[in-house]
């Protein structure tokens, strides 16, 4: 971690918190994640044909994600070298690049829109808004289900949309954040266990689990710290207790950590049985002793907690930067 990286990360976190992703900008320019998606789709079309044997598709998937990660690292190294050579102008440009890969304001806005949709247009409005952020069938959700889905998405995406890219940038600069976002995009596109991607996406899914392992645990600590600041010691203690007890109930090795932390902080039940692509996924409830009925107010409380968690991350980054400047 260099002072350059820490300072750029601190500035990027503050900028993303205030500005987010301006829709007008990305209506005119392709977002880098969209470009990553095009690269992944290129390999998918050519190396994942259904005429190939499963073992061949798995081998091709390993080769594809390794090539994509190598390309991401190479681009990150070249861009990093170029920006360092530009001095202060390069620093500002790098700060902007990092901010593009963070998702504080945009995530908060999308989740808050679910509560607004429920309040202004009832269940129909909530389903419409939640369909923008979750993969499950919104028509199968009642109002508490919509609320739970929004809060679960908020917690999970705090880990892999804010904490993980920030962490990988802190550890490895632009090559680290580029590789992480490429891997995370690949997992979302080809990492699910459908007949089409069970083999081809196997490596992407396993590597994404590995890359998100530290961020998921860190995110649960940030949520507990935010609960302490907003709600006091009992909420923080409950958040940590539910995390340690119930994080393993989730089918994902990582998502259960921030979701359990959020469930404990808000004292509500999360996850449980739900429907993805017409198929019922049966899972136990996280924080089964919490309130069983989530409401729009719980979404709003979750968003407030999310923003406080982001603030804790910014403050911690600023403190580490201050120490680095003094050493």
Short structural description:
The protein has 327 residues and is mainly alpha-helical. The chain has 11 helices and 4 strands, in the order H-H-H-H-H-H-H-H-H-H-E-E-E-E-H. The strands form 2 sheets. A two-stranded antiparallel ribbon has the order 1-4. The protein has a two-stranded antiparallel ribbon with strand order 2-3.
Tell me what the structure shows.
- The strands form two sheets. A two-stranded antiparallel ribbon has the order 1-4.
- The longest helix is centred in the middle third of the chain and has 48 residues, at 143-190.
- Helix 1 packs antiparallel against helix 11 (296-326), helix 3 runs antiparallel to helix 4 and helix 6 packs across helix 7 (143-190).
- It has 327 residues and is mostly helical.
- It has helices at 3-18, 23-28, 32-47, 54-85, 88-100, 104-130, 143-190, 202-231, 233-246, 256-266, 296-326, and strands at residues 270-271, 274-276, 279-281, 285-286.
- It has eleven helices and four strands, in the order ααααααααααββββα.
- The two termini are 13 Å apart.
- Helices cover 75% and strands 3% of the residues.
């Amino acid at each position: 971690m260099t002072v350059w990286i820490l300072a750029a990360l601190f500035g990027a976190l503050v900028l993303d918190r205030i500005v987010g992703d301006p829709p007008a900008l990305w209506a005119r320019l392709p977002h880098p994640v969209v470009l990553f998606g095009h690269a992944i789709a290129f390999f998918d079309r050519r190396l994942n044909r259904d005429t190939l044997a499963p073992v061949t598709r798995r081998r091709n998937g390993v080769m594809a994600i390794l090539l994509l990660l190598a390309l991401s690292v190479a681009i990150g190294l070249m861009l990093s070298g170029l920006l360092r050579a530009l001095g202060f102008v390069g620093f500002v440009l790098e700060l902007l690049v990092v901010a593009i890969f963070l998702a504080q304001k945009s995530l908060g806005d999308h989740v808050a829109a679910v509560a607004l949709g429920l309040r202004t247009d009832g269940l129909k409005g909530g389903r419409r808004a939640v369909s923008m952020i979750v993969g499950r069938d919104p028509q199968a959700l009642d109002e508490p289900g919509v609320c739970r889905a929004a809060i679960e998405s908020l917690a999970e995406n705090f880990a892999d949309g804010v904490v993980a890219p920030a962490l990988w940038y802190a550890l490895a600069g632009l090559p680290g954040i580029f590789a992480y976002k490429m891997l995370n995009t690949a997992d979302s596109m080809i990492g699910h266990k459908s007949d089409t991607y069970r083999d081809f996406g196997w490596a992407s899914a396993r590597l994404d689990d590995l890359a998100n392992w530290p961020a998921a645990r860190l995110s649960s600590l940030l949520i507990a710290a935010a609960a302490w600041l907003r709600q006091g010691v009992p909420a923080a203690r409950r958040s940590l207790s539910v995390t340690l007890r119930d994080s393993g109930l989730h089918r994902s090795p990582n998502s259960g950590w921030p979701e359990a932390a959020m469930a404990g902080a808000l004292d509500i039940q999360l996850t449980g049985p739900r429907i993805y692509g017409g198929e019922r996924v049966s899972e136990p409830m996280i924080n089964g002793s919490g309130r069983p009925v989530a409401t729009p107010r719980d979404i709003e409380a979750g968003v407030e907690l999310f923003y406080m968690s982001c603030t804790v991350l910014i403050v911690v980054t600023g403190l580490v930067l201050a120490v680095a400047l003094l050493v």
